[in-house]
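#lab-general

N.A. 3:47 PM
ok so I finally got the sequence cleaned up, no stray characters, all 115 residues accounted for. can someone with queue access submit it? mine expired

B.Y. 3:52 PM
send it over

N.A. 3:53 PM
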Amino acid sequence: MGPSGSVGYQTMISVEQLCLGSTAAPALSDISFELQPGERCGLIGPPESGKSVLLKVVAGLIEPTAGSIRSHGETLNYADESGLSDWQRNVGMAFQNDALFDSMSVFENVAFPLR
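B.Y. 4:20 PM
back already:
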C-alpha cells in the first residue's frame, strides 16, 4: 500500500545505489533518490560533479556499473533494446545552452527526439 492507504501507488522514479566508473575514479558513487508523481527536482553542483552524467544514466544513454533505476515499477534493463527504446521514448531532456549528447553522432542527436 502506498501513502494514505492507496492501492496501486508506485514511485515515479527510483534510483538505488547507482555507480558509474571504477572504484578508483568514479563518475558517480552510490547515488540513491526517489521522485514521487508531481514532484520536481533540480540538480546543482560544481562543474564536473556528475550532474549531466547522472541525467544521461537515468535517460538510458549510459549504462551504470552498479545500481538500478526504476520508473512506475519497471526496472531499466540496458540489455533489452526494445525496453530501452520504450524507456527513452518517455524521457525528455533539455540541457542548458542547447548542449548535444556527446556520446552520439550529429545524426543521432538530431534523430533522438524523432524516434
